[in-house]
Amino acid sequence: MKIGLVLPSTPGYSETFFRNKILGLQQNGIKVILFVNDYKSDEYFLNCKVIKAPRLGGNKFKVVLNIFMQVLKMVLVSPRNSLKLFILNKKDKLSTTQNVKQVIANQFLLTEKLDWIHFGFGTMTLGRENVAQTIGAKMAVSFRGFDIGIYPLKHPNCYKSMFQKVNKIHVISDDLANLLYQEGLSEYKKIVKITPAIDTHFFLSEAKKENAILQFTTIARLHWKKGLENTLEALCLLNQQGIDFKYTIIGDGGEKERLIFAVKQLKLTEKVIFTGKLSSEKVKKQLEATDIYIQYSLQEGFCNAVLEAQAMGVLCIVSDAEGLSENVIDKVTGFVVPKQQPKLLFKKIKEVIDLDDAQKKELSLKAMERVQNEFTIEKQQQEFLNFYEEN
């Protein structure tokens, strides 16, 4: 079997979801070809053939040269597939100008014979809905939070054409499947849930030391959808109660300046630490020192960091955004709080702090056991193998 995986870029060393999936397929004799917009230089890179998309933006001279090269490829390498794609697009009532642009832009996808072409993100199918049929492959699409939770708000019915042509859709949570149905996906289409997974051999609970003051942690891109301002507002209320703590935020992003301003306004400057991105080893070390992990996102597909925290035996408080309420079972392996309600989050943090040691230990053990049983890389790899092999 030969599978083409369409991604924004070659997966870096830290992008474990795609790397583990690819390795699992390769170990079962499946050839994987990567189609990407950008190539990351990475000494750990996987043993895959990589086909890079032409760059059709930026320097005008280079754009003209790239278009010329793609036209040559269309004429000399893939004339039949190019014509077939043009005809299929025309049936979808695409304008001639837009049709020609798509045929040129998608040349890099037309040269390989594949059993499956799998788009790693829903938005990557836009303008490529007919590529799979053109090359005689089955079409698979993965949806995560942004693809279906946010993008369609600005682009209604953007997936209407793709829904009619896709063979299988992969989601990471039931909530995302429900969003797909709300967006117009017919019930009969095959949706397969394969959750994220973590290295449960690496993220193992260590003997925790008692902290002099409470340690809270969040691992997140500094983006509005992560709900970090709401988290800070809840911790401001905690601070006003005279409870001492440190809050560590691991991650980078465009909202850092805004968040630093919020920290100052809420008088939490001495309480909050921004570390930027950290290695897996440093993340593990921080989780070992954490009393409560908080992921109070406004939108979240699932969140590996919450799995890692649970695997380490850290008590977790999350919002009810999409997959988080499946990631953590409320009052069994952690706590789920309605999103965008900082006062409720504050109350829940206070409640968790006040739990006795036996209650905390029971929650931690159940969380660790569930992650070890249900969210392993080995289980995920087998599920992806079944995804492609089963009708």
Automatic annotation (TrEMBL):
The keyword Translocase does not apply. Residues 215-359 form the Glycosyl transferase family domain. The keyword Transferase applies. InterPro entries: Glyco_trans_1 (IPR001296), Glycosyltransferase_grp1 (IPR050194). It comes from the Bacteria. Pfam families: Glycos_transf_1. CDD domains: GT4_PimA-like. One of its GO terms (molecular function) is glycosyltransferase activity. Keywords: Transferase. This is Colanic acid/amylovoran biosynthesis glycosyltransferase.
